[in-house]
Amino acid sequence: MxxxxxxxxxxxxxxxxxxxxxxxxxxxKDFQLKVDSTKENVECGPxxxxxxxxxxxxxxxxxxxxxxxxSPNHSLVAWGVDCNGAEEYTIQVKDLKTGExxxxxxxxxxxxxxxxxxxxxxxxxxxxxxxxxxxKCFRHTIGEKxxxxxxxEPNELFEVTLERSKSGAYxxxxxxxxxxxxxxxxxxxxxxxxxxxxxPRKHGVRYEIADRNGIAxxxxxxxxxxxxxxxxxxxxxxxxxVEEIAHDPSVKICKAVCYSTFVSLYMRKEGxxxxxxxxxxxxxxxxDVVALPTDGQAVxxxxxxxxxxxxxxxxxxxxxxxxxxxTYDFNVATKERAKKKQFPVLGGFNEKDxxxxxQWATAGDGTKVPISIVYRTDKKVKNGEKDANGNIGNPLYxxxxxxxxxxxxxxxxxxxxxxxxxxxxYAIAHPRGGxxxxxxxxxxxxxxxxxxxxxxxxxxGKHLIAEGWTTADRIIIEGRxxxxxxxxxxxxxxxxxxxxxxxxxVPFVDVCTTMLDESIPLTVQExxxxxxxxxxxxxxxxxxxxxxxxxSQKVNYPKIFVSAGLNDPRVGYWEPAKWVARLRDAGAxxxxxxxxxxxxxxxxxxxxxxxxxxxxxxxxAVDVLGAGK
Length: 629
What we know:
Elements: E1 2-3, E2 6-11, E3 20-25, E4 48-52, H1 53-57, E5 64-70, E6 76-82, E7 90-95, E8 101-103, E9 110-116, E10 122-128, E11 134-141, E12 148-152, E13 159-164, E14 170-176, E15 181-187, E16 196-197, E17 207-212, E18 215-220, E19 228-233, E20 242-245, E21 251-258, E22 262-269, E23 272-280, E24 286-290, E25 301-305, E26 313-319, E27 326-331, E28 337-342, E29 354-362, E30 368-376, E31 396-399, H2 417-421, E32 425-429, H3 439-443, H4 451-466, E33 475-480, H5 482-494, E34 501-505, H6 511-515, H7 527-530, H8 536-543, H9 547-550, E35 559-565, H10 574-585, E36 591-596, H11 607-624
Parallel strand pairs: 31-32, 31-33, 33-34, 34-35, 35-36
Antiparallel strand pairs: 1-2, 2-3, 3-4, 5-6, 6-7, 7-8, 9-10, 10-11, 11-12, 13-14, 14-15, 15-16, 17-18, 18-19, 19-20, 21-22, 22-23, 23-24, 25-26, 26-27, 27-28, 29-30, 30-32
């Protein structure tokens, strides 16, 4: 991508676990970016590798690099690095002119985000409290000994994240809980200017902000559960806001991203993500929608990618569960488009060999729940027929999450191709509690409605059986983290009636005990997701589904593979360990427990190590589904 007078990119070389961050200076005079411009066909200087993650990881079992931010004048670069999976980042700064490290350990309790002010010497970062809550923003001016506190959030329900606006005019501190968002604006051109909220905090109101040429575009849920888009001059304040796009109960507006000549909107409709683009004039008013070519895919994922603020081009990726992501550059004004690359898949992969479908299961209360399905076309068997291994029906892998308003989209996943080629159908259930169908979908699967997530998932499994896709003894189910809670609850409710095996990755399964302990990470912030168990109504409800507390000798549990990470700050390893012990005490015969001793919530960090970890789960799945021949 072009940024200033450079092309920036990352590369992962054969044999390396991690990527290298590189750039090439643009030497061409009066260069104007076009859709077909690349670092190969534009006159550039030699490649500079300004950060090699492989060198950072040398000698370490774990290495996760957070946000990598180059200063506005391209002379410094800052990043954070976590070396054990505990999500505590050490901030480092490097001089790109000399190649020397300026700061080797600015702080070792930071979050992954860093952002530069426009003076090219002041760096902003967030630190964590004793419970790992991101709560305080510092600014550090290179060459000075002491960092200064910019903002501190005392309310334990809220955490703070940081980003630099695409325009470069502001830094935004996002102070948020599950129910409420307040954004604090910092003038990137005047570090001494007081930071202040764009709109003061109001319980239940969430908003996102983007800016261009002094005009703010705000997506807010105030009186609009799925969001509406407002526009106002920052100098005049929120009181002058006018509505650009009204609330639509069938379409969720997630956020706006501003460029100098157009605005892109991230949206969701009928369970799918979308990007809507508008050209804008000097007054900031949105013009007509500029349609992005999507090549007629029935089930696709569309996502915009980073380009500099002054770019006339929108870069976006198009993919489905069967089609590896294709990246395009699209000139919003001229409608010109150029294909930049497609994600490579080894092993003779041919996207035409696979089919993607969507199904809708009917929940017990009549709600229609979407299911995304992908399979190898020539391996799918009809209802009642045998597969290549002599088993009735299709072996089926059913994944689910259903929490935090997170949408599990049907991105292409090269790791499951081996499963598809063995005749395994891969499906994703999208239960309430997730964000696939909008804000109300999420609200209908949290607090005292959390069990909707579990019953939706079970109903998806029953639908796939009833429609002839598979049989209960040929289904394996998987969920991770809060999706592990989903697995635990589903197994307690249905046991082997819905599946022959389950995979629970770093599962949040000891709900009541964890939520009663305010000294551990995330507990208080999670009150607005699950409820506060210090209130009897919520405690009783949590207790009625908490997997550890609901394990029963009356349930016929299937085979279960459980994983944990010793340094996991989100789900302590003792939770899945305790659950496994309870399951075994209750008579569950085939429960495998694997605790990774050198990582955290997201398993290993190196790309080969990640594949090795995933191979354990895939081998388990292939074996229990009888698809190993």
